[in-house]
Amino acid sequence: MRLVVVVSIAAAVVVGACLALGPGSGSDCAAMAVVGCSAAAAPLRAGLDVASMAATILAALGVVAFGVQARQHRRLAGSLARTSRPRLLGDVPVAVVEGLAAPAVAGLFRPTIFWPDGLERRLADRELTAVLLHERHHQRAFAPARLAALTSIEPVVGLSGFGQRWLERRRADIEIAADAYAIQAGAGRSDLARALLRLDSEPTAVAIAGYGHVSDLRLLHLLGDAPPPKHEGIAVTAALVVVVGLIACGAMAIAA
Ligand SMILES: [Zn+2]
User: Fold this and answer.
1) CA 66 to CA 148: how far, in whole Å?
2) Ligand 1: distance of its center to the CA of 41 in Å?
3) 210 CA to centre of ligand 1 in angstroms
4) Centre of ligand 1 from the C-alpha of residue 44, in Å
5) Span from the CA of 255 to the centroid of ligand 1 (angstroms)
6) The pLDDT of residue 216
7) Residue 112 Cα, ligand 1 centroid: separation in angstroms?
8) Gap from CA of 173 to ligand 1 centroid (Å)
9) N or C: which end of the chain has fewer CB within 10 A?
């Protein structure tokens, strides 16, 4: 059991890293996937149990899904970086991009603040400081990587309305944490809320931590009217355990 988990996770990490970082094409990654699967299958053929196989497959799927998200994100961050020019706003380094709707942080390992050209002239000084502090937190907390992880589990977790609400809450938490950091550093709630309403923009399909992704939860939080947190995380975890258990039992029934 331990051997198969270690071997499979290693194989899955190789495939995920290939998809995320590799200069190779999709077919190169597919070849690596075959190698990874063979490596994982060897100990299974030696008689290891089906439950560990099911767990391994799920783990591998998770890593590969994250790899796909990471690769898409890398392309987006690369395009933004190519069309940007560096600038200092106060003491905050940003990359200025023409035509960007709202500030955004992109880059999984070295997050960069991408800044719409001329936005600083549309914001009051206090709003500008508040937005920069918010983006700084996204940068320091590696928000793009966390969003990519959430997006990669969305096809499974988001199947239920319950799971969708849980994902929405986790995404709102990332924004609320950035607001809390800005407020702690001296930004006013009203400055953040005004900038948020001013910069309303559509969320993108790829995980970037922006400023203008309006979430009702976040706005309520800024206005001091946040609903009490629900223990949805525990319920989602329990639901996932049940699903994994059903898959493992089904696989065992078929194998028997
Ligand atoms: Zn944000």
Assistant:
1) 7
2) 42
3) 4
4) 44
5) 48
6) 54
7) 13
8) 10
9) C
